[in-house]
Amino acid sequence: MSFHEVRALGGCPVGLLDGVWMAQSPDGTCRQLEASQSLVTLLEHEPATFWDTLASDLDTRNLDAPAAASFPLMASVRMGLNWPSEYWQGHALRWVAALGLSNDVIPELERLVTEGRTQHLRHRARKLARCYQVKDGTA
């Protein structure tokens, strides 16, 4: 039962411990990645290349590529949408636009429509929410 580092996010080692994605603190303790604030820094990466990069990182360390499927990506997007800064909210909206909408982020997206840090963010969130409503048939 040992921690296998895959990459760093926000200067924090991130990897697998018994098949669960974890973040390792400087003192060596691990906690689930979904609870780590360093997860939001993933949003600075390009959505188009994320999965390939993650699979490559796993392969380089002789870890199973299927572990990529359990990476808490949507937790990162939700974290960014809820973050109290235009910077992270903007990056999260970029990911939502690139990945397509997921029911997982609709509440956060709808909240941003009315409570986004800037008018620009509110308009971007509204546009994405409308796309969801059209696809969902609720428009």
Proportion in β-strands: 5-15%
* Tally of contiguous helical segments: 5
Q: Could you give the distance between the termini?
A: 50 Å
Tally of strands: 4
Unreliable spans are none
**What percentage of residues falls in helices of 4 or more residues?**
40-55%
Order of secondary-structure elements: EEEEHHHHH
Q: Which structural class do you get from the secondary structure elements?
A: alpha+beta
Number of domains: 2
User: Order of strands in the sheet with the most strands?
Assistant: 1-2-3-4
Q: In this structure, how is the largest beta sheet organized?
A: 4 strands, antiparallel
User: What general outline do the C-alpha atoms trace?
Assistant: elongated
Keywords:
139 residues; single chain; 2 domains; alpha+beta; 4-stranded antiparallel β-sheet
What does this structure look like?
The structure is a single chain. This protein is of the alpha+beta class and 139 residues long. It folds into two domains: 4-39 and 48-68, no CATH class; 73-136, no CATH class. It is 45% helix and 14% strand. It is built from five helices and four strands, in the order E-E-E-E-H-H-H-H-H. It has helices at residues 50-60, 73-82, 86-99, 106-115, 119-136; strands at residues 4-9, 12-17, 20-24, 30-32. It has a four-stranded antiparallel beta sheet with strand order 1-2-3-4, with helices on one face. Strand 3 and strand 4 form a beta hairpin. Helix 2 (73-82) crosses helix 3 (86-99), helix 3 runs parallel beside helix 5 and helix 4 (106-115) runs antiparallel to helix 5. The longest helix has 18 residues, at 119-136. It is elongated. The protein starts with a strand and ends with a helix. The model has no long low-confidence stretch (mean pLDDT 90).
